[in-house]
Known about the structure:
By secondary structure, the protein is an alpha+beta fold. The chain folds into 2 domains: 3-202, Alpha-lytic protease prodomain-like (Up-down Bundle), CATH 1.20.1510.10; 209-294, Alpha-Beta Plaits, CATH 3.30.70. The protein has helices at residues 3-30, 33-59, 74-102, 110-137, 141-170, 175-202, 209-222, 255-272; strands at residues 228-237, 240-248, 276-283, 293-294. Strands 3-2-1-4 form a 4-stranded mixed β-sheet, with helices on one face. Strand 1 and strand 2 (240-248) form a beta hairpin. The longest helix is centred in the middle third of the chain and has 30 residues, at 141-170. It starts with a helix and ends with a strand. This is Cation diffusion facilitator family transporter.
Amino acid sequence: MSRNALWVAAASVLVGVVVLGLKTMAWWVTGSVALLSDALESIINVAASLGALVALHVSSRPADANHQFGHYKAEYLSAVVEGVLVILAALTILREAYNGLMDPRLPDQPFTGMLFNGAATVLNGTWCWVLLRVGKAHRSPALVADAKHLFSDVVTSVGVLVGFVLVPLTGWPQLDPLIAGLVALNVLWMGWGLMRESVAGLMDEAAPPEVVAHIRQLVSSHAEGALEVHDLRTRHAGRMTFVQFHMVVPDQMTVAAAHAICDRIETAFAEEMKDAILTIHVEPEAEAQHHGVVVV
């Protein structure tokens, strides 16, 4: 994991604290149930950003005697925790929305509250875009999960702002908690999706079809001298993709020649898929299965 990604994760904590301050001020001047719910979600955002930072730090550690394949899955654990926190935030918002429906009232100073909340929303939306770009560039589940978490916060804030526009126009105070409740349901759905994706990573889900197709093309193009490659398997662990396959070579081929083919394939992967770890099992011609990757 590059230092750039770690710095972005650390900056997320600072951005979360600033956004929390802005939303707390918006709630304080208005007394709005929806803004209180929005501020509560931002508290969880700060905690989630801290979790992502810790996960990135742990995943960047080199392999050791107890973790011989590295610490890459720490990012998935962070993403699962973030999913749980998003769901907790949604349930908290639903509770506050229910309390608001039981005791509805019009917000105070709605324009001032909109300014504070609007500034927080713009900051969150901008940082969400930065996190998503860096997370995808570094193939970091923790940063991508943090970006999705922030996006759920942006959706919440937009819903709250819509409510703030409609409540004074309609004079209907129940609209404030109703908007908060609807947004909470959307946040709940996003949290479930985030947890589902993270658990798939912990369960060693295979690489996406387009990545597997690229792997097959790399092997086929750089395994000249071999006969075939079969039992190609992939799995993800954080930003890393583990690739393993059986490579069949002619019976008369020397160990040195077979090793040279493996070196050529590994060099190609190092140039085009830097975050891939290969395991190649060399087999004699009798083990050919006549399926899988036909070497060109």
